[in-house]
Amino acid sequence: MIDIHHHLLWDQDDGSTSLEVSLEMARIAAADGITHIACTPHANGNYEYDPEQITAKIADLQRRLDSENISIKLGRGSDFHITYDNIQLAHKEPTRFSLNGGGYLLVEIPDRALPPTLHEVFYQMQLDGLIPILTHPERNLTLQGDLKRLVGWLQSGVLIQVTAGSVLGHMGRTAQRISHELLSKRWVHFLATDAHNTTSRPPRMREAMELVASKYGPDYAHLLCVSNPLAAFTDKPLAPQLEMFDLYDDMKPKSWWQRLVGR
Questions:
Q1: What pLDDT score does 51 carry?
Q2: Coil, helix or strand for 89?
Q3: Is the Cβ–Cβ distance between 197 and 185 less than 8 Å?
Q4: Domain limits of the chain?
């Protein structure tokens, strides 16, 4: 399994608090079957995102993992927050925040609202050659009440990442319900841990992958946990995806009866 959303780096944000914690998180991930981790610290007003510093820290951690025979390959990305400064920097340097300097970018929205110009932000990112990956929409209060807001973004090529813990109910019942509604529609492209520590938000995906396989099929689970995240990690196009449901209903021609009754 490949984890593209992970706060593994110590003293970088609200994730790992020390090198020892980072090493233990990597051990847990490896034992769970995770082989690749994109280190994605927050990029927002609270935490400075310095690509050179982060790259150097990843190199140090990779050397420690290799010396301890922890079979994890590390990469770099960011938990990109929608702020004015970030948007301007991403426009000038499209790969500054992206996964391993490629075309995929994790985009985090607030838990309680939606930025009013989000559609335009996604559009500009795509013009700049980026593929936005909207992270954990199941935890956003506005989207929880109106998933139809995702339709236009999905139709335009925005990808969706759901947190493995949400699928299992660790993020609350509402996030769990929304996760499974998204999964049942096949609107999800990635599962990821969004791990922050070894206890309350640990780096595990196996149980969530197995649940998705049992409820929605092993092919879909493999896409979400292996094929798609590996493509994003290595900056390759996604493999052909399974058909999404209820995404293009509004585009289907209506029958004369539907037109008559206004449905």
A1: 95
A2: helix
A3: no
A4: 2-261
Closest of 2, 83, 91, 88 to residue 40, by C-alpha? 2
Nearest to 238 by CA among 189, 201, 196: 189
Superfamily name and number for 2-261: Metal-dependent hydrolases (3.20.20.140)
Does residue 256 have a pLDDT over 80? Answer: no
Output the six-digit token pair for 215: 């409820």
**36: helix, coil or strand?**
strand
86 burial type by CB count under 10 A (0-12 exposed, 13-18 middle, 19+ buried): buried
Return the pLDDT at 248: 85
**pTM for the whole thing?**
0.93
pLDDT the model gives residue 250: 61
Q: Which residue has the tokens 């190199």?
A: 59
Specify whether the CB–CB gap between 61 and 82 falls below 8 A: no
Write the CB contacts of 180 (distance below 8 Å, at least 6 apart in sequence): 167, 215
Measure the CA–CA gap between 74 and 225, rounded to whole angstroms.
16
